[in-house]
Amino acid sequence: MNQTLPVHLNFAQKAKIGFEIQGKLPIKQLKRLSESLLSNDGDLTVELKFDRIGPVPFIVGHITAQLELKCQRCMQSMAHPVDLHFKLGMVQKEEQIEKLPEDMEPYLIETDNNHLPDMLEEELLLALPLVAMHEFDCSDYLQKQVLEQQDEVEKPEEKENPFSVLKDLL
Ligand SMILES: [Zn+2]
């Protein structure tokens, strides 16, 4: 049951009556997130449940996606799989934040016309790495440095540098 997610929802009212929804959202609809990506192709897959515990309305969410970040070391594409779970307790004022159950992040509700893609985008942006970088040494420069250091440690008495021959020829 993959449907297109609605843009506007009354979060508090949905929590009051209990509401579940699953669907897809094109990544390109999220402008701020797209700015951090090399490509905004593809969709988010989203599952949301609106409910309440006692007086506290909350949203439980799960987002999966394949994002394409730009590695800040080699500037190449970097696949970033997202599998994000979150639980937001709705508050109308700051004083309510401390009364939230510990496993909930506060989510400020200022209107009854809430923007669903904005909420999802905020959660995704919070979960992105501060500096995207490949886990392996992806930069040629860094790789050379590492190899040179290894050479020094492992082969301190290198007999002949093949490049010295070239140097003589030049
Ligand atoms: Zn890289």
UniProtKB/TrEMBL annotation:
> What InterPro entries does its record include?
YceD, YceD_bac
Write out the biased-composition intervals (Basic and acidic residues): 152-161
Gene Ontology BP annotations: ribosome biogenesis
Identify the Pfam families for this entry.
Answer: YceD (PF02620)
Chain spans, region Disordered: 151-170
Report keywords, A-Z: Ribosome biogenesis
Say yes or no: keyword Ion transport present: no
The record's GO CC annotations read: cytosol
Report the sequence similarity comment from the record.
Belongs to the DUF177 domain family.
Q: What does this protein do?
A: Plays a role in synthesis, processing and/or stability of 23S rRNA.
Protein name from the UniProt record: Large ribosomal RNA subunit accumulation protein YceD
